């Protein structure tokens, strides 16, 4: 019930946002945020019931994907109270609906994980979720920036482009998100070093490797921005490359072990 409620509310909110964009309005009505807040409550409760079970934690691909979407939407909603980020929901809401429906209808044979959540392990998991979700938001921002860049280069400054903030503001927002995500990713790596054991038994080698690769890519991007003034397509390409590595780290290995190799 919470999942279906969240799905319906996301669809209503997305439809309202599309209507706002079609009418050329810069801000959606207050009803949009009310619908979104109610959807997030239902989504959060639903994903909690899916993952936290009496026999353990069901960290499977589609349920974790739904969790990441919830955190990403929550972060965008909070940030949109101060910054012009609400148009990112045009991308994240339909993705969230797809993630919710997948978590509801696609079953997994993977058994729940009977994990003892010490403070260190819990902090590592929480930081991982926040870091990945922040980078999801940054990637959506990079895609919006790429679209804006393309339209302006081809002299089409109409439609959705005119509803977006100026190009310089969009780039500043992107790098603010990247810095926040990189700090969280650094804390993920540090807490993982001290609190994660039995790396081989948990099949974490690939996850660790791709996480470090992503951290290096983002570090190069932020260094290039600070010292070389990277912007535009360079920033977008490096952002997408970093997120591709994160996908392989967080979701790629999980997808391989659950869907291809089967339960271990």
Task: Draw up the topology in text.
Blueprint: H1 2-22, H2 30-51, E1 52-53, E2 56-57, H3 61-80, H4 89-105, H5 119-153, H6 167-195, H7 205-228, H8 232-260
Antiparallel strand pairs: 1-2
Helix pairs in contact: 1-2, 1-4, 2-3, 3-4, 3-5, 5-6, 5-8, 6-7, 7-8
What is the residue-mean pLDDT, rounded to a whole number?
84
Q: Radius of gyration from the CA trace?
A: 19 Å
How is the quaternary structure best described? Answer: single chain
Q: Unreliable stretches, pLDDT < 50, 5 or more residues?
A: none
The biggest beta sheet reads: 2 strands, antiparallel
Q: How many helices does DSSP assign? A: 8
Adjacency order of strands in the biggest sheet: 1-2
Fraction of residues in helix: over 70%
Task: Report strand %.
Answer: under 5%
Following the backbone from N to C, one meets helices and strands in this order, namely HHEEHHHHHH
**How many individual β-strands?**
2
Query: Span between N and C termini?
Result: 31 Å
Gross morphology is globular
* Number of separate structural domains: 2
| Structural class label | mainly alpha
Can you walk through the features of this model?
The chain has 264 residues and is mainly alpha-helical. It has two domains: 1-114; 116-264, no CATH class. 75% of the residues lie in helices and 2% in strands. The protein has a two-stranded antiparallel sheet. The longest helix has 35 residues, at 119-153. 34% of the residues are buried.
């Amino acid at each position: 019930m919470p999942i279906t409620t969240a799905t319906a509310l996301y669809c209503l909110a997305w439809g309202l946002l599309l209507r706002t964009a079609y009418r050329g309005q810069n801000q959606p009505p207050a009803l949009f945020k009310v619908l979104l807040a109610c959807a997030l409550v239902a989504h959060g409760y639903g994903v909690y019931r899916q993952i936290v079970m009496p026999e353990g934690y069901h960290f499977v691909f589609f349920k974790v994907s739904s969790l990441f979407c919830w955190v990403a939407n929550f972060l965008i909603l909070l940030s949109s109270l101060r910054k012009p980020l609400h148009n990112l929901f045009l991308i994240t809401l339909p993705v969230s609906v797809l993630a919710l429906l997948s978590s509801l209808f696609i079953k997994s044979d993977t058994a729940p994980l009977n994990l003892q959540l010490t403070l260190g392990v819990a902090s590592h998991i929480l930081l991982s979720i926040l870091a990945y979700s922040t980078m999801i938001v940054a990637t959506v921002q990079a895609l919006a920036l790429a679209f804006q860049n393309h339209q302006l280069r081809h002299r089409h400054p109409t439609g959705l482009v005119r509803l977006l903030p100026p190009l310089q503001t969009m780039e500043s927002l992107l790098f603010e998100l990247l810095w926040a995500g990189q700090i969280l990713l650094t804390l993920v790596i540090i807490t993982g070093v001290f609190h994660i054991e039995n790396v081989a038994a948990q099949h974490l080698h690939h996850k660790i490797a791709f996480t470090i690769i992503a951290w290096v890519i983002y570090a190069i991007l932020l260094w290039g921005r600070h010292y070389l003034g990277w912007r535009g397509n360079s920033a977008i390409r490096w952002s997408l490359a970093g997120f591709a590595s994160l996908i392989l780290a967080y979701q790629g290995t999980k997808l391989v072990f659950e869907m291809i190799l089967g339960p271990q």
